[in-house]
């Protein structure tokens, strides 16, 4: 797990005050990290266009130009001149080297966007928009310095932003890079150390980036076991029964010892999935909500009142009957539209999906502050898993999963782990990593995945 911060100003301050580093040293390391990336990935003499803004993001770009000069064909373009003190200092240094500034954007092997970084504080004017649009149209490798220009500190893209292949971000990972709106722009993300190892200046945080190693698969270590050792999941199937059946199959493939679909009508199920008309006596986890439609309210109330680990999905986020359950340890897996309905139901906010997507971290925090026992998994391009004060970010999401049925597989995977005695947070984290990494491993065209493909990939992780 890596740390993610809302702001990194306090980390810079720690470098200055506690370790007596200077802004110049920090910037030199920032620029060196990008130089190293270019040296490792591109042949000498390649042309590098560096577009530098007026502030310290531009200053990073100027320092990079100095470091690459002579080994690479460096083209510095400063559409707004140098305004910050550091930008002026760096500009002076490149001029002393004899580096001439370019007056326009031209085709190059590599483009570095050092126009705006964390200081973007107003709408882009026409000149900046034209620059960004022109850069985006270039058929070259694109590197963003710190953050792609046009993405603000919250990760919002209100007009346009630079499409980076790689973003080399300064000092530490920032929330802005992980908002869904930023996902198409940031590319691969790397972090540049600021003169000392990152682990030295990084402070405690409550936002974490999940890594593959955080996935704790339900591998069976004990030899002396039986099916009851791995729990009995009950999936409540409603009017769209397929959703419950998909969840049940996924759960079985992820290790639950027994899986039953609870349904009043007789339904066709694979032979390894059982059917029951009411909750099983030995049920160790419940999955409810997927494809539920209109169900008998009293019966749902009775099911939700059980003190059995439960995951709630889909249709139930619109129903007041879940409010009582939110006081307990339960897993919720809404997509943005369902989360908006839930926020309204809980009287936290009455917002549109567009508003939610602009501030995903904020609304997850608000919800988890009000319901600290709940594990909330907000679906999206980058899934956010919130519990109490903490948020875990899964950035492995892929559009391969943008399909009906993918969410039912996820519910089934989480439910399976709940049935196998994982706690709610661990179940949500491992199941979600398994879900996204399985989709990443899927080798056929990215439009073609069906739920059973996903379950097959989960089995191979
Ligand atoms: N603080 C530090 O210690 C470090 C900062 N570094 C760099 O410094 C950057 C932050 O520098 P700054 O705070 O100077 O901010 P930026 O360089 O990101 O932007 C500020 C400048 O852009 C202008 N500006 C902002 N929004 C604009 C818009 N929409 N249209 C036109 N002009 C606009 C501002 O008027 C100002 O001149 C970071 O992103 C990073 O790249 C790195 O060198 C590492 C160390
Ligand atoms: K930038």
Automatic annotation (TrEMBL):
Record domain YjeF C-terminal: where: 210-461
GO biological process, one term: metabolite repair
GO terms assigned for molecular function: ADP-dependent NAD(P)H-hydrate dehydratase activity; ATP binding; kinase activity; metal ion binding; NAD(P)HX epimerase activity
One matching Pfam family: YjeF_N
PROSITE patterns, per database record: YJEF_C_2 (PS01050), YJEF_C_3 (PS51383), YJEF_N (PS51385)
UniProt remark on cofactor binding: Binds 1 potassium ion per subunit.
EC numbers on record: 4.2.1.136, 5.1.99.6
Annotated residues for binding of K(+): 57, 113, 149
Catalytically driven reaction(s): (6S)-NADHX + ADP = AMP + phosphate + NADH + H(+); (6S)-NADPHX + ADP = AMP + phosphate + NADPH + H(+); (6R)-NADPHX = (6S)-NADPHX; (6R)-NADHX = (6S)-NADHX
Residues annotated as domain YjeF N-terminal: 8-202
Keywords: ATP-binding, Isomerase, Kinase, Lyase, Metal-binding, Multifunctional enzyme, NAD, NADP, Nucleotide-binding, Potassium, Transferase
Domain of life: Bacteria
Cofactor: K(+); Mg(2+)
Family matches, as InterPro entries: Carbohydrate_kinase_pred_CS, CARKD, Nnr, Ribokinase-like, YjeF_N_dom, YjeF_N_dom_sf
Chain residues that bind (6S)-NADPHX: 56-60, 117-123, 146, 243, 291, 335, 408
Positions with a binding annotation for AMP: 407
Family to which the UniProt record says this protein belongs: In the N-terminal section; belongs to the NnrE/AIBP family. Belongs to the NnrD/CARKD family.
PANTHER family: ATP-DEPENDENT (S)-NAD(P)H-HYDRATE DEHYDRATASE, ATP-DEPENDENT (S)-NAD(P)H-HYDRATE DEHYDRATASE FAMILY MEMBER
Known function: Catalyzes the epimerization of the S- and R-forms of NAD(P)HX, a damaged form of NAD(P)H that is a result of enzymatic or heat-dependent hydration. This is a prerequisite for the S-specific NAD(P)H-hydrate dehydratase to allow the repair of both epimers of NAD(P)HX. Catalyzes the dehydration of the S-form of NAD(P)HX at the expense of ADP, which is converted to AMP. Together with NAD(P)HX epimerase, which catalyzes the epimerization of the S- and R-forms, the enzyme allows the repair of both epimers of NAD(P)HX, a damaged form of NAD(P)H that is a result of enzymatic or heat-dependent hydration.
Quaternary state and interactors: Homotetramer.
Descriptive protein name: Bifunctional NAD(P)H-hydrate repair enzyme
Gene designation: nnrD
């Amino acid at each position: 797990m890596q740390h993610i911060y809302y702001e990194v100003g306090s980390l810079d301050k720690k470098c200055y005050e506690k370790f007596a580093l200077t802004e110049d040293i920090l910037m030199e390391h920032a620029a060196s990290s990008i130089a190293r990336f270019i040296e490792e990935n591109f042949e000498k003499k390649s042309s590098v266009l560096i577009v530098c803004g007026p502030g310290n993001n531009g200053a990073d770009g100027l320092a990079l130009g100095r470091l690459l000069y002579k080994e690479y064909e460096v083209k510095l373009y400063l559409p707004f001149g140098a305004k910050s003190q550091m930008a002026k200092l760096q500009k002076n240094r490149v001029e002393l080297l004899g580096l001439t500034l370019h007056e326009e954007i031209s085709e190059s092997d590599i483009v570095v966007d050092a126009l705006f970084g964390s200081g973007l504080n107003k709408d882009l004017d026409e000149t900046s928009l034209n620059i960004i649009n022109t850069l985006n149209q270039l058929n070259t490798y694109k590197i963003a310095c710190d953050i792609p220009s046009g993405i603000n500190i919250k990760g919002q893209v209100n007009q346009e932003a630079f499409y980076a292949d790689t973003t080399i971000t300064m000092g530490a990972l920032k929330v802005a890079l992980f908002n869904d709106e930023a996902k198409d722009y940031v590319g691969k993300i790397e972090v540049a150390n600021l003169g000392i190892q990152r682990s030295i200046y990084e402070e405690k945080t409550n936002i974490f980036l999940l890594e593959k190693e955080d996935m704790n698969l339900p591998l069976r270590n004990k030899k002396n076991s039986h099916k009851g050792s791995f729990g009995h999941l009950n999936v409540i199937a409603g009017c769209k029964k397929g959703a419950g059946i998909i969840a049940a199959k996924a759960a079985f493939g992820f290790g639950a010892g027994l899986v039953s679909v609870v349904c009043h009508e007789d339904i066709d199920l694979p032979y390894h999935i059982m059917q029951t008309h009411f909750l099983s006596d030995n049920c160790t986890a419940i999955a409810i909500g997927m494809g539920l439609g209109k169900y008998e309210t009293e019966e749902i109330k009775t099911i939700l009142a059980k003190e059995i680990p439960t995951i709630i999905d889909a249709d139930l986020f619109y129903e007041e009957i879940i409010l009582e359950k939110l006081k307990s340890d339960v897993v919720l897996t809404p997509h943005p539209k369902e989360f908006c309905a839930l926020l309204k139901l809980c009287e936290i906010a009455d917002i549109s999906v567009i508003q939610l997507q602009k501030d995903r971290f904020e609304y997850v925090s608000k919800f988890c502050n009000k319901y600290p026992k709940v594990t909330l998994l907000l679906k999206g391009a980058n899934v956010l898993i919130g519990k109490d004060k903490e948020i875990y970010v899964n950035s492995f999401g892929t559009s391969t999963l943008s399909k009906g049925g993918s969410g039912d597989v996820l519910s089934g995977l989480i439910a399976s782990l709940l049935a196998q005695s994982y706690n709610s947070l661990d179940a949500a984290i491992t199941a979600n990593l398994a879900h996204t990494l399985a989709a990443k491993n899927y080798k056929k065209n990215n439009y073609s995945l069906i739920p059973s493909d996903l379950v097959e990939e989960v089995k191979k992780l």
